[in-house]
């Protein structure tokens, strides 16, 4: 069968408003939000960016940070549906700072050969990422805290990180050691801060850089990246070749807090019946000792975040004292989420569950509504385009995302999808983490491609694993607990949960079983699979408007549009998302079909059935 059109890399036109510079986005804004930069109209706005490490949204950590609530949530906008696209530190951060999906950066792990700072440099991004672009646009740029994994006391000068007027980076193997951190300032040698809590250290450094920025003549971008609430890692365990992660260590003044707090007991917390897919479905139910430890781990994370809460308070206070607060955008987020006990999992991330991919995002600044909750789908891929937008810089053509709606009547086109992707190993954390083969804290073959879809009347997650296991959840009624994919092909499920084939169900079965959005599961899954086929290899605007790849001549811009019966045959003959083998990184030969069919008027699809 010959494919009609290869379109995976197609560059298509997107509504110009989605990519327009800042001024045009606010032309129709109400007077209440037309205060952009009003404290100094001649000077572009400043940007303060705070990124925590492994902070959840789904486990409600933001309810325990009252100062962030006061300064950012009440004085800015909360983006309720904000997602990362890879639930792992380094790939997520590289995507954030470049505006590109991980399959386009090819930085997919925390260490070489597939990830870490050396891979970032190898891919050419040290000369081509956000701080470099902002400097070229006239900004002074500063950074302190964690940048990337595998940025070490041995390779920090090979080469030095570009793009910053001032920098003071956390260094591996001491990055996650709360009481034994090492920082590397400017182009100087690394300095150990053993005996001091890393959050106190970074607070001093952040305030120092903010003072430097405020003393300058140009607008500034200051990024602050505390390690909390990431697990604590003893550097000696890394030297012995086995990373062992334990509960984070809070500042002593916070160690007594939250004595009775427990992990939220949602339906997916240590369920009686197995849940999830692939290797997750085989996890045993946790015993009481493990549950108690999960609660301790959760409390430790909340305590560790109190130092971040105070850090934000100090930064906002310094901006207010300087008179620059009203001309500064403050962005607060995290690199990925976190699970603790959900689906019987030990503490960790690396999964496609809500706990792992949905993270906090607050934005405060000129023109941003106070106390507002934005429901639009936003992702980390959108943050670099958003910063460009706020700074009045024209967007780059290689951005895989688009500026997010910082005002209620934002004029740009929005997307309803999130491309979720992962390669390599799942990582288990905590003292009960040795659940892998031979007592390993790592689980191989955790490679998967997924699409998270939030639209009018639907809330879905569809995933294909590298063992060709499939799963589909209606998250409006389930916490990733009821895999409705099994209704269409139970005969194809093997004992280990994988699929013996990766093909659509025959037409005779298409209207059997339950309905989703008024159509059979098969018809809905056919659309989701085709969408995922586009997204897993998209580039630029095809990542923003993937439906236009499938329907370049038709007005299909959402799943609901695509579910029209006139498109049934077209979606039935699409190549299916599948893997040829499981690999530890982005190896395109392992990733099955890359190019979807393209719908064209006048084409009879029944000849393909």
Automatic annotation (TrEMBL):
* KW Methyltransferase (keyword) present: no
Q: Which GO terms describe its biological process?
A: phenol-containing compound metabolic process
CDD domains for the chain: G6S
Under Enzyme Commission nomenclature, its number is 3.1.6.1
Signal peptide interval: 1-16
Sulfatase N-terminal domain: from which residue to which, for each copy? 45-393
Its PTM note reads: The conversion to 3-oxoalanine (also known as C-formylglycine, FGly), of a serine or cysteine residue in prokaryotes and of a cysteine residue in eukaryotes, is critical for catalytic activity.
Instruction: Give the reaction(s) catalysed.
Output: an aryl sulfate + H2O = a phenol + sulfate + H(+)
Q: Which GO terms describe its molecular function?
A: arylsulfatase activity; glycosaminoglycan binding; N-acetylglucosamine-6-sulfatase activity
Record keywords, A-Z: Glycoprotein, Hydrolase, Signal
* Chain positions found as 3-oxoalanine (Cys): 89
- Cited SUPFAM superfamilies: Alkaline phosphatase-like
Main EC class the enzyme belongs to: hydrolase
Question: PANTHER family, from UniProt?
Answer: N-ACETYLGLUCOSAMINE-6-SULFATASE FAMILY MEMBER, SD21168P
The family annotation for this protein states: Belongs to the sulfatase family.
> What is the designated name of this protein?
Arylsulfatase
Species whose genome carries this gene: Penicillium daleae
